[in-house]
Amino acid sequence: MGKKTKTGSLTRQQRAKAQQHRSKLAPSSAHPRPIGAPPVRVATPDGNWTVNIGEFDRLLDNASTLMEQGRIDQAGPLVVKAMEAAPPETPLRAKAAWMLGTLFAMKENWAHAYSLHSEAVRLDPTQPEYWFNLGLTCLNRNMVANAGIAWTRCMALGADAYMTRVVQESLPQLHRDARQHLAERPHMTLATMAEHELLYRQALDTLDRGDAATAHRMFLRCTELDPQHHRSWGNVGAALLALRQFEQADEAFAQALAIQPDYEFALQCRQDLPKLAAG
Q: 41-53 pLDDT, tens per residue?
């Protein structure tokens, strides 16, 4: 697999400030119902769902307190219970997904954090804190365009003072990085840049899971979206190596090196190809 690119050019101080959100959670006050209140029925696409909203909020409130204290492992089971209790495809599910995603972000498990934060904004796109956390998760997954899009949406929804300060410190640099990237690729737009970032990360995750055939197709699509992205070509080669298609892998590595002649991963793979093919 190719070496991961660094995200933008934010300073270490800016990145540290941005990551402070991981211990800052908004209070669970969307449904102020007394603890012990009777269960209510919530309409869902699959029918009615019975949920005790008071208990749901208690779980998230207690988890929030534990997370603020840094007791992540103790908070986890509470958030998982809230996720299990939340009706699917509802704002309640979005709230639980947002908090569980933030818990994974605190553990720097960015793949799971991204999936959950994406679910949160899909189910309830009106909450600025959901977009804020999604933006930071994108930033830590090397998805600069997606981070900028999420944080722009966060600001448009009325971010609080903390989120506003973090975004205003970081967003201009993200926009500069995106403009520079697009200036070098006249065929691309911000939308295709964001699509490439997301697909590339998904392809890496797929390859990590051992599904080389699917990853190969995904990396090929990445090269269509951004033919100048040498790491996409390098990972086309990596997937082909896993599939033992050595001649085609060599061609992919050659394409990567035509774009970036000092690309260490491709150079090493081409050097190792004879031994791998013989084995």
A: 555 556 566 777 8
Residues ≥6 apart with Cβ < 8 Å to 78? 59, 60, 62, 63, 66
CB atoms inside a 10 Å sphere around CB 13: 9
Cβ atoms of residues 205 and 111 within 8 Å: yes
Q: Which of 158, 183, 208 finishes a domain?
A: 183
Nearest to 202 by CA among 264, 67, 111, 103: 111
Q: Which of 114, 125, 124, 22 is nearest to 75 (CA)?
A: 22
Question: Which stretches of the chain drop beneath a pLDDT of 70?
Answer: 1-49
Based on the domain organization, do 169 and 244 belong to the same domain? no
Write out the two tokens for 126: 């009106």
Same domain, 162 and 204: no
CB 158 within 8 A of CB 131: no
| CA pair distance 151, 69, nearest whole angstrom | 26
Please give the model's pTM, rounded to 2 decimal places: 0.77
Q: Radius of gyration over alpha carbons of the chain, in Å?
A: 22
41 bridge partner residues: 50
